Amino acid sequence: MTQGSRQRLAWLALLWERLWPALWPAIGILLAFAVMVAFDVLPGLAPWLHAVVLLGVATGLVVALRSAARSFRLPLPEQARRRLERDSGLKHRPLDAIRDRLAVAEQDVFARALWEAHRWRMAQAAGKLKVSLPRAGLVDSDPYGLRVLLTLLLGIGLIASGGDFGRHLARALHPAFGAANPVASIGFDLWITPPDYTGLPPIYRGTAVSEAQDAADRPIPVPAGSTVLARVHGGKATPELSLDGKPTAFETIAGGEFNVSAPIGEAGAIAIRQDGITLTRYVLQIVPDQPPTARWTEPAKVLARGTLRLEYEATDDYGVKSLTLEVKRPTGNEPAVEIPVAAPAQAKQVKSAFFEDL
User: Fold this and answer.
1) What is the DSSP letter of 42?
2) Which residues contact 11 (CB under 8 A, 6 or more apart)?
3) DSSP readout, 166-185?
4) CB proximity list for 127: less than 8 A, separation 6 or greater
5) Distance between CA atoms of 175 and 170, rounded to whole angstroms?
6) Which residues pair with 188 in a beta bridge?
């Protein structure tokens, strides 16, 4: 590498050492803003406070950049040569000596020979030039090491954002002035699933349900033994599912979603809360499961060939699914004979008759 190339590298090292400390205040402000964006902090603020933070960041950047422009000076060529000499451990400034000219006694042969010998020794010394890596010199500008803390927080935030930094940045740059209640930006879905034996479909409530259907003062009939599955979309704090005031925390799932499942038991009210705000609340009417009933509507009749005709009625609040006839002697230890009875399609009340040859 030539002497000129090394001198250019020394000049660039000086440029870096002057530019980095001058720009550090502006870089620090940008790092702090990037951390807030990565953690999606600004959209959670009140719109006016969001705007104040953005104005503060912009003002701080302008002030920091103007200060850097006023204090920054480009390195001079002689400063680059001096840096190169210091990095190489050279004394008596050989690079300057090589460039110097004999000021007096140019006609004196002895003086010129002595001068040329001096220049030759300086050139020999300059042949061992080396350039050291630039030194950031941020200890004076950042004595508390905020650059390390902010960089670490930014890395954690980028990992936590899961690739949504661009979406977070768009939200951070646009305060939500004129937006509706913050609850409106949070969605939820709630499914109440009756027990399997009821044969009933899940009961759904959520942000897509109309206000008339979603009226909180209209009790929702819920079969005993039902379970609830709830999901919340959006928001910062972990929501809570409240059953008669007893909270159950949601679990966090990917993409800013929260999920929870719990048995309803005998709860008379269900609510979803997040960050101190009630997203929704419903009154429940627990419907107990009534035991099924079965009776003979007519006495058993013996037909000509000894076949029995049996007429019965069976009821169940969720529909009769199956019937079994048990026949046993009044005396004796023989086990009962179980005879499946073909029932009509599931209905709450069944009236029918069947024939059985015992």
Assistant:
1) G
2) 75, 77, 79, 80, 83
3) HHHHHHHTS--TT---GGGG
4) none
5) 10
6) 232
Query: CB of 259 within 8 A of CB of 251?
Result: yes
| Tens place of pLDDT per residue across the chain (358 aa) | 455 566 566 677 777 777 777 888 888 899 999 999 888 888 878 888 989 999 999 999 999 889 888 887 777 766 666 666 666 555 555 555 555 565 665 566 666 666 566 666 665 555 565 556 566 666 666 777 788 888 898 888 888 776 778 878 888 888 877 554 444 457 889 999 999 888 889 999 887 654 444 455 678 999 999 999 999 888 778 899 999 889 999 998 876 789 999 999 999 999 998 877 888 889 999 999 889 999 999 998 999 888 889 899 999 988 888 888 888 888 888 888 898 887 766 788 888 888 888 7
What is the DSSP secondary structure assignment for residue 128, as one 8-state letter? T
Cβ atoms of 313 and 297 within 8 Å: the answer is yes
Residue 309 DSSP SS3: strand
Find where tokens 């719990």 sit. Answer: 262
Q: Is 276 left (phi over 0), alpha (psi -120 to 50) or beta?
A: left
